[in-house]
Amino acid sequence: MEIAITGIGAISAIGNDVQENLRALLAKETGIGKAQLLSSKLTETHLFGEVKLSNDELRIGLNWTSEAVSRTTLLSAWAMKEAIEQSGITVDNQVGLVSSTSVGGMDRSEGFFEPYYTEQDFANVFMLGTHDCGTCTKQAAAHFGITAYSTTISTACSSAANAIAMGARLLRQGKLKRVIVGGTDALCRFTANGFNSLMILDSEWCKPFSANRAGLNLGEAAAYLVLESREEAEARGAEIHGLVTGWANTNDAYHQTASSPDGNGAFMAMTEALKKAGLNSSDISYINAHGTGTQNNDQSESIAIHRVFGAQKPPISSTKAYTGHTLAAAGAIEAVYSILALKENKLFPNLNYQDPIEDNDWQPQLEVETAEIKHVLSNSFGFGGNNSTVIFSKI
Question: CATH code at 283?
Fold first, then answer.
């Protein structure tokens, strides 16, 4: 069975829908800057990839009446709405949802603790009800009437890539006819402080794959894809944006927060995804790299890419300098960018690059360029050594 993509939806720091994201990618316009909505002391010293809509604006746009909802859920529903409408599907008992998040509802629940521990008069216990990762999926599923199947994946920064892979497997196993897959994460104080404690936050624009890289910029986003068999899609006359042809998930179990220095997990993920797709490394037209801008990740991923592709590497870029690292949503927003690269025959640039990493025999794509793109390999590597690769192809 060929897995077709018939709908895509996205919201990020560079746009509130897919077309706005594409326009910014082509214009080389980053969405990273001073945060206006995040309540954190780090906003005074660091840059973030913040979505430009407030929670109230998101609620109004979605006609969401309840206030007992997290920003993570609202971003999720916003992107899902676009994907569902674009696909033209009717949500029925053959449609499932595989959603991913790492932050869950922390953006709301963390607001409970300060008044609670300081014995102030008001500590809204109802904020805690939005905390669990699964609540985001449950609320979004209920909003769109998805009852056949829904589940949540939380494997750090590889979460959304794993959601895409799981959705493809559900289709091939005949469990569902259509699956909505993707991921969502909102900015919150917990993740900002956590990454700062690891000393991997850059106070300036991040510089993926540059020798003088100093860390990542955190971002928030949501993106979703509608998957169905190519046969089903063609039977109903749906537009097919591309195919999901290969995927793999591995774990190098090297360290809680660091990738293995020899890139073993990333190497295995790319190798297995190519094998599943029935492709050789020379068939890949473009690599959308994980490319966080941290010392460890970029070095490890560079080594892994060299092990897989050797001297004949395709164009490579990280788009995180546009959006920031969006954690569990990264694999989904970058899946949308990979699909746009296929549809538009465009290579997207690696912003802020300055000097090559020592021993790298390549530099990332630096300009928007038109090229014949047939297969895109997208990497998503998470804490705990959870590494995922997904391959997207033209029909």
Answer: 3.40.47.10
